[in-house]
């Protein structure tokens, strides 16, 4: 199976989303379609879109360092509830927390200012 253009790519993506992995008869089609879609993406410069927000960077740091929220809050010197509010978008990052994100997590200061 080969995908030649964007219309075929979109149709293939729709078909792949419609298939369910619960049904064993779909597995061969899913694998062939997935390989064809991936080959088309590779040949046409498609790349996954990386979310890039301050929350994403904080959560990525937590994941990479295998930290729980409570451990990260302790590292940053803030309460667990304040960290949760920031991660849930209920509280903005102030200068003090921005400075801590820069010094402790090594998130570039310019990025913190742009996304705070």
Automatic annotation (TrEMBL):
Domain HTH cro/C1-type intervals: 64-112
Pfam families in UniProt: HTH_3
SUPFAM superfamilies reported in the protein's UniProt record: lambda repressor-like DNA-binding domains
PROSITE patterns assigned: HTH_CROC1 (PS50943)
Superkingdom classification of source: Bacteria
InterPro entries: Cro/C1-type_HTH, Lambda_DNA-bd_dom_sf
Protein name in the entry: HTH cro/C1-type domain-containing protein
Organism: Hymenobacter mellowenesis
């Amino acid at each position: 199976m080969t995908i030649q253009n964007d219309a075929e790519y979109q149709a293939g993506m729709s078909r792949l989303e419609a298939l369910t992995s619960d049904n064993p008869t779909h597995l061969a089609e899913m694998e062939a379609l997935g390989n064809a879609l991936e080959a088309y993406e590779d040949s046409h410069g498609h790349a996954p879109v990386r979310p890039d927000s301050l929350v994403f960077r904080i959560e990525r740091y937590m994941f990479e360092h295998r930290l729980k929220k409570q451990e990260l809050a302790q590292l940053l010197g803030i309460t667990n509830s304040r960290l949760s509010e920031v991660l849930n978008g209920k509280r903005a990052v102030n200068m003090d927390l921005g400075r801590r994100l820069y010094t402790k997590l090594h998130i570039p200061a310019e990025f913190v200012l742009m996304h705070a």
